[in-house]
Amino acid sequence: MSQDPPSDDRAEPILSIEEIRERAYDLWDRNHRPEGYELEFWLMAERELMAERRGVSSGLSDAGQA
Fold first, then answer.
1. DSSP 9
2. How far is the C-alpha of 43 from the C-alpha of 23, rounded, in Å?
3. How far is the C-alpha of 65 from the C-alpha of 57, rounded, in Å?
4. 14-42: pLDDT as tens digits
5. E strand or H helix at 46, and its extent?
6. Following DSSP, what letter does each residue of 19-45 receive, concatenated?
7. In which region does residue 65 sit, left (phi positive, over 0), alpha (psi from -120 to 50) or beta (all else)?
8. Which residue in 19, 23, 28, 51 could disulfide with 56, CB within 3.0 to 4.6 Å?
9. Contact of 28 with 36, CB cutoff 8 Å
């Protein structure tokens, strides 16, 4: 008998390449367009979008709120 792996109700949100590209470009642009950081901005964009889809706050936007 084979067992199926346990199912996880928290499936990863699906992100399109276009969404990530746009967010990464925006992050890069807001950070004065440094050269050589393409991967860092791409990964940062992915993390932000995934957190937004899961409803998790990054903590940065809540910093000024009391």
1. S
2. 10
3. 13
4. 999 999 999 999 999 999 999 999 999 99
5. helix 38-54
6. HHHHHHHHHHHHTT--TT-HHHHHHHH
7. beta
8. 51
9. no
